[in-house]
Amino acid sequence: MPVIAEVTVVPLGTGSPSLSRYVADCHQLLREAEGIRYQLTPMSTVIEGELDRVVEVVRKMHEAPFTAGALRVSTTIRIDDRRDKPLSMEGKVRAVEERFM
Fold this sequence. Notes:
The structure is a single chain. The chain is α+β, with helices and mostly antiparallel strands. The chain has a single domain (2-100), classed as Alpha-Beta Plaits, CATH 3.30.70.930. It is built from three helices and four strands, in the order βαββαβα. A four-stranded antiparallel β-sheet has the order 2-3-1-4. β2 (37-40) and β3 form a beta hairpin. α1 runs antiparallel to α2. The radius of gyration is 15 Å and the shape is elongated.
């Protein structure tokens, strides 16, 4: 069953307050990853896939800023792993929206 993870990768020691190039590098890894769905949000990225694949791609995302010259990287991960019924990004949003209708 897929899990949903929220990931925030923050490069530190970059010499610039702008992080968009680092975010773009991480999203290139997501585009190339098989078995992964993702959604960019203004503050983080939501990833859906099998747990092992999600953890694997998050590790690559964590390493990407180092490759691009960052001196320090802080990565935060939250994983929603529900095993009693199927889980999807759309399903989680729909469950909340249905409460308003």
